[in-house]
Amino acid sequence: MKINSLFTFLLITLLLAACGQSEEDPNDYSGVISDGEVIGYTYVVTKEQGAFVWEIGYKGNSTIVDESKENEDVLEDYRTAVNEGQGALTTLMISGVYFLVAASLLIFLYKKNRKLLKNGGFIAGILACVIALTIVIDASIDLRSAVDNAEFYYLKITD
């Protein structure tokens, strides 16, 4: 009896939740659509009265641009560059921490207990550090490229 009551309660809750949601026309939405920031380059896309308005900026200097057919591609490229920069920065930070942890652990084990690093342990530790360092270098190159692209498109939009 207790299981049937619990099941009935869950079923009614799900039905009420599903029925309580209203259908909203996505064309009527006004507000922030997306935003991003990487190393000083920012953007905020808002939808106001059916039109997209972009606020782009660099280190506190912001410019408001109304999206049109003429500048749509450049604005999208700017957003892509900033988003790619965000991803590269996140990868850089995570892999940098991983490298520091792996290198610290390797040094600690080398100084405290060299026996643990015999039979391939030292090689595995070095390999982990090399892989992490490779990812760090790759992410730094990607971040530099994304920031250069963001700068190019920012200057193209603001000129």
Description:
It is built from 3 helices and 4 strands, in the order αββββαα. It is an alpha+beta fold and 159 residues long. The protein has one domain. It has a 4-stranded antiparallel beta sheet, with helices on one face. The N and C termini lie far apart (73 Å). Keywords: Membrane, Signal, Transmembrane, Transmembrane helix.
In a nutshell, what does this entry contain?
The chain crosses the membrane at residues 88-110, 122-141. By secondary structure, this protein is of the alpha+beta class. The protein contains 3 helices and 4 strands.
Write the layout of secondary structure elements.
Elements: H1 2-20, E1 31-38, E2 41-48, E3 51-58, E4 61-66, H2 72-112, H3 121-158
Antiparallel strand pairs: 1-2, 2-3, 3-4
Helix pairs in contact: 2-3
